[in-house]
Each structure stands twice: as structure tokens, then as C-alpha cells.
Amino acid sequence: MQFTTTISLDACRRRLTSHKTIAPVLADTQVVIQRLPDNRTQFAVRRMWTGLQTWLNHPVMQLSGTLTPKGSARTDVTVYVEIGQMGLLLLGLAFGFLLLGLAYPNVVTAWIMVIGLAALFGYEGYTLLRIIHDLRS
Fold first, then answer.
1. Which residues contact 131 (CB under 8 A, 6 or more apart)?
2. What sign has the CA pseudo-torsion 127, 132, 133, 137?
3. CB 75 within 8 A of CB 9
4. Hey, how many other C-beta atoms are within 10 angstroms of the C-beta on 15?
């Protein structure tokens, strides 16, 4: 996705870093910003579960891209949305429980797991979409 925002490059960097969070139960938001020599900036916003020491230290979803200044008050933003290892695991588990629920319709636990895992994956995606929306405004 590519768009032009009406804020400066420094304001875009500040908006990205303002989204860093540490959540006790859900995924944390980590922001990595790297300045390039040609006045562009590469960034990565990762939603990562950091529980159980290093076992779950993998990204669920992430945004990566570049910020390119266009004058003093405009910035071109290029964003790519990527699904990480834990996101693929969530989707795989949701699909597996969906198949189990379809095979045995009376097993309510399978349907609850499908709804829960889909809601968790949807929340992660919604969080990243809020960051993109924040950069656009």
C-alpha cells in the first residue's frame, strides 16, 4: 500500500514510536526505525508475543515499509503487511478447530476455539490498521 500523508517525516516517526506498547496478556507492539543515508526512513511495527521467555518471541503480524520526504510537510509512505510465524500458527489452529467443529457439530469447544482464535487474529490486524490510519490522517 502506498499513500502520501500531509505531515512531515519527523512527525511520521513520532507517530510510529507513539504506538509502542507492552501488554501483559496480548501481543506487544515493537517499533524499529532505521534512518537511511538518502533521508528516507525504514520502519517495522511488529505485534509480538513475548511470553514464556523466548518460546513465544515471534511476530504475529507486522507492518514494514519506508517513509520518503516530499518537501517539508508531505511524506510518501509505503507499507507492507506481513503475517508472522505466530500469525500462521493462529490461522492453522483456527482452521484445524473449524474442521473439527464441522466434523463433530456437537463439540461446542471447537466452535468456541474457532471464534476465539479468529477474534484474536482480527484484533492483531485491527491494531495494525489503526497505525496505518493514524499515519494517513
1. 16, 19, 45, 63
2. positive
3. yes
4. 15
Average pLDDT over residues 20-33: 79
d(Cα 137, Cα 129) in Å, to the nearest integer? 12
Closest CA to 124 of 70, 85, 72, 95: 85
Cα(124)–Cα(61) distance, integer angstroms: 7
- DSSP, collapsed to helix, strand or coil, labels residue 21 as strand
Name every residue whose Cβ is closer than 8 Å to that of residue 9 and which is 6 or more positions away in sequence: 39, 41, 67, 69, 75
Tens-digit pLDDT profile for residues 113-132: 889 888 988 888 898 899 89
Cell 496478556 sits on residue: 25
Among residues 78, 92, 96, the alpha carbon closest in space to that of 121 is found at: 92
> What's the pLDDT tens digit per position in 33-59?
999 988 899 999 988 877 656 666 778
Q: One-letter amino acid identity for 10?
A: D
Torsion of CA 137, 26, 96, 55, to 10 degrees: 120
